[in-house]
Amino acid sequence: MKLEKIRNDFPILNEVVHNKPLVYLDNAATTQKPQMVIDAISNYYTHTNSNIHRSAHTLASRATELYETARDTIQQFIHAAHRHEINFTRGTTEGINLVMYSWAMHNIQEGDEIIISALEHHSNLVPWQQLCKQKKAKLLIIPINEHGELMMDIYYKQLSTKTKLVACVHTSNSLGTINPVKDIIEKAHLFGAKVLIDGAQAVAHAPIDVQALDADFFVFSGHKLFGPTGIGVLYAKEEILNEMLPFHFGGEMIKTVTYEETTFNTLPYKFEAGTPNIAGVIGLGAAIQYVQSIGFDFIQEQEKTLLAYATEKIKQINGLRIIGTAANKASVISFVINGIHTYDVGVLLDQMGIAIRTGHHCCMPLMDSLSLEGGTCRASFSFYNSQEEVDILIAGLERVVRMI
Ligand code: PLP
């Protein structure tokens, strides 16, 4: 009965939509929040609200302690070597932009090459595309095979001494493919290139060890990890962060200021200008503690079971085609149904209380290359989803198909 107990931790799972119990299968877009996270945020504003790092009074020191303890929690969660390698951002998108402006802008020159994959979310594509235009550098794309897996033999050939950065998604939000990131990093390092891993879809599903991966940069968002929106993490190796210029200038990121000069603060404060999202950081810390209390053994087992069960059932629906059949896949099923637009599938399922995502999933070039004009329908499962919810999805899809 562990699942029932877990579901009770998420108050939103008791919501009713169009007079039907909510079946929330849009976890790749954002995950729901356990009561523990809601309480951490609410308690912070009720009992502790104060600005951090700057004041002698009690509330400020309590707020600072909660904020910095969350940094320790995150350091341990992703196995970073140092707490000051954890920099708080607004999310994955901001983390990637930070690396683009503060590292790549100063390290990519004309003629250099950046490699990304065909599975990138726009947030790990547009910054590099724009930088390459500005710097007259070249953007190379690792293609995918018919299952949605990266063609690693082509990647190996794309690498050269011109490669300065490989920016690759760990787990695809649109097809669910889990990429061989350790190998990607290892091979890039042979050519002296830095590697950024977009971990947005990875952190909620499997343990991450940035040291074992040897990632130079690793970014993720709190809201896909059962934490609040508007908070995320950029991990980078200490020596790289030390060489980088600040992203934002202002309060907190300085050591000394005169009218003529500014010296910058030590890590991680150099990258945390202004008043941060204190409640968000505390909420994220609580979310990670919650995940740790559930344990990745249970999370992975539950998601694997749901994926296998749903894939088997969904495959049997007439006219439905699964997009993305990688051998190593997260709990995401993208699909299209002959004769009906993806958006209409989403609207019809919503009437039945079922929340899925439809469209291009912020992967327009990928959808174009697969000739999927309307994108796909995407059901994405979390460990709090049940087999009964999968059955409701299947019954809903069968009704949709009957309506065509
Ligand atoms: N990368 C991937 C793989 C994603 O799935 C997402 C969000 O869907 C992002 C990046 C962007 O994350 P955020 O909007 O939280 O910055």
Describe the overall structure.
By secondary structure, this protein is of the alpha/beta class. The chain has 2 domains: 2-32 and 295-403, Alpha-Beta Complex (Aspartate Aminotransferase, domain 1), CATH 3.90.1150.10; 39-292, Type I PLP-dependent aspartate aminotransferase-like (Major domain) (Aspartate Aminotransferase, domain 2), CATH 3.40.640. The protein is 41% helix and 17% strand. It contains 14 helices and 17 strands. The strands form 5 sheets. A 7-stranded mixed beta sheet has the order 4-10-9-8-7-5-6, sandwiched between helices. Helix 7 links the parallel strand 7 and strand 8 (194-198). Pyridoxal-5'-phosphate is lined by residues 91-93, 121, 123-124, 169, 173, 198, 200-201, 221.
SSE topology sketch:
Elements: H1 2-8, E1 16-17, E2 20-21, E3 23-24, H2 35-48, H3 58-78, E4 86-89, H4 92-107, E5 113-117, H5 126-135, E6 138-142, H6 152-158, E7 163-169, H7 181-190, E8 194-198, H8 210-213, E9 217-221, E10 232-236, H9 238-243, E11 254-257, E12 262-264, H10 278-294, H11 296-315, E13 320-323, E14 332-337, H12 342-351, E15 354-355, E16 357-359, H13 364-369, E17 376-380, H14 387-403
Parallel strand pairs: 3-15, 5-6, 5-7, 7-8, 8-9
Antiparallel strand pairs: 1-2, 4-10, 9-10, 11-12, 13-14, 14-17, 16-17
Helix pairs in contact: 2-10, 3-10, 4-5, 11-14
Bound molecules: pyridoxal-5'-phosphate.
Pyridoxal-5'-phosphate (PLP) binds next to helix 4.
Report the span from N to C terminus.
39 Å
Count of β-strands = 17
CATH topology of the largest domain: Aspartate Aminotransferase, domain 2
Give the helix level as a range of percent.
Answer: 40-55%
Most strands sheet: 7 strands, mixed
Neighbour order of strands in the largest sheet: 4-10-9-8-7-5-6
